[in-house]
Amino acid sequence: MQERDQHYDIIVPVRTYVFTFLALLLLTALTTAVAYIDLGPFNTVVALTIAVIKMMLVILFFMHVKYHQGLTRIAIICAFFWLGIMMTLTLSDELTRGPSWEMNPSPWSALLPHIPHIVRFLF
Amino acid sequence: MSDAAVTHEGHGHGHVAHQFETVEQQREAGQLGMWLFLMTEILFFGGMFTAYTVYRELHLPAFELASREILEAKYGATNTAVLICSSLTMALAIHSAHTGKKKWQTMMWLVFTMILGLTFLGIKLRFEWYEDYIHHFVPGLGFQYRPEWSSLGSQMGQVQMFMCFYFFMTGLHALHMIVGLGILTVLLIMTARNRFSPDYVAPLEISGLYWHFVDIVWIFLFPLLYLVGGRYPH
Questions:
Q1: In chain B, what are the domains?
Q2: How far is CA A86 from CA A29, A75, A81, A82, in A?
Q3: Residue B88 to residue B109: CA distance in whole angstroms
Q4: pLDDT digits (tens, 9 = 90+) for B126-177
């Protein structure tokens, strides 16, 4: 492949950077504005969704991952996969025990009785 | 927009270390190496984000109150904007070196990036950490509870826990910013000494990855610390 050799020598046009920059500023304003509206538990969901979109914009355009394939993407996916392992295993323990669990069970607790049924249904 | 990206043509084979066959292979290896370092950084900050998530789940009312009463969203939002501007100027510095612009242009963008980085740290020190200190909001340095927090009851102590997370997370982020400013100083000197050409911008690109990564960490710190539980009247 001709392009394969030149993947790492890409020049991204300035307007791509400027559009990314403007989108990031807009999303910062949006996430700040949404914090002043009462959405209940969805305030956190919206804030984190916007943060993930901003991260994707930075990674894809400022860090050029949109123009790279292969190893770079595998490295990034691995990093987030390991982060996912750390968070999931820690939280699956922490969210299901302790005094605070009995006093005010988190919304996840509603799922717990159904897990055996879900497992049986899947396998 | 990938079709709009132009592949750089006509590069020579200067600056290829002997273990590499082509300039491209050398660039690929350099960037992958930086990404591997950033993987360790993701997990390094990830440990703190995980700890934060656990404690936030355990003591949500205290975390929401501490964030609302002590932290000011306006400074967090301003600093987010400052860092996003600095990411743009960093990208433009690399772009101008890569497209063979005059060296003063690259140096100008690097200086802008450093000024924005220093602005971030200045806002943090003067309007946040210093104010926290004189208002007795720093755990271990004469922390004082406010009477209006008594609604939290036995959970009031967790306000200090939130502030511990706040200072450790923003402190480690600030430390990364200071390292970044050091790297930018080196890049500025290298540019002044004509070390870069359109064929050779690896140190600029790799430092750019680091700078953007530090920006991403702040993109998550801002909503998690400054906007916990919303800012609407409770």
A1: 21-226 (1.20.120.80)
A2: 31, 17, 9, 6
A3: 9
A4: 999 999 999 999 998 888 888 888 888 888 889 999 999 999 999 999 999 9
The predicted-structure confidence for B175-209, as pLDDT tens digits, reads as follows 999 999 999 999 999 999 999 988 889 899 999 99
**C-alpha to C-alpha distance for B141 and B87, rounded to whole angstroms:** 34
Distance of alpha carbon A65 from alpha carbon B13, whole angstroms: 24
B179/A contact by beta carbon, under 8 A? no
Mean pLDDT value of segment B28-44: 93
Residues of chain A contacting residue B4, judged by C-beta atoms under 8 Å apart: 13, 15-16
A-chain residues near B219 (CB < 8 A): 51, 54-55, 58
Nearest CA in chain B to A52: B220
Measured between CB atoms, does B172 come within 8 Å of chain A?
A: no
Give φ, ψ of A113 to 5 degrees.
Answer: -60, -20
Residue of B nearest to A2 (CA): B7
Contact list in A for residue B50 (CB cut-off 8 A) is 86-87, 90-91
| CB contact (8 A) between residue B54 and residue A62 | no
| Statement: residue A8 has pLDDT above 60 | no
Residue of B nearest to A108 (CA): B57
Query: Could you report the predicted ipTM of this complex, rounded to two decimals?
Result: 0.89
- Cα–Cα distance, B6 to A61 (Å, whole number): 14
Inspect the interface and report whether the beta carbons of B8 and A43 lie closer than 8 Å.
Answer: no
A22 in contact with B, Cβ within 8 Å:
no
Chain B residue closest to A37 (CA)? B232
**Buried-state track B184-204, b at ≥16 Cβ within 10 A, e below 16:** beebbebbeeebbebbbbbbb
Give the per-residue pLDDT at A3.
Answer: 44
d(CA A70, CA B195): 30
Two tokens, residue B25: 């292979």
DSSP B6: E
**Contact status of B16 with chain A (Cβ, < 8 Å):** no
Band of the pLDDT at B13, cuts 50, 70, 90? very low
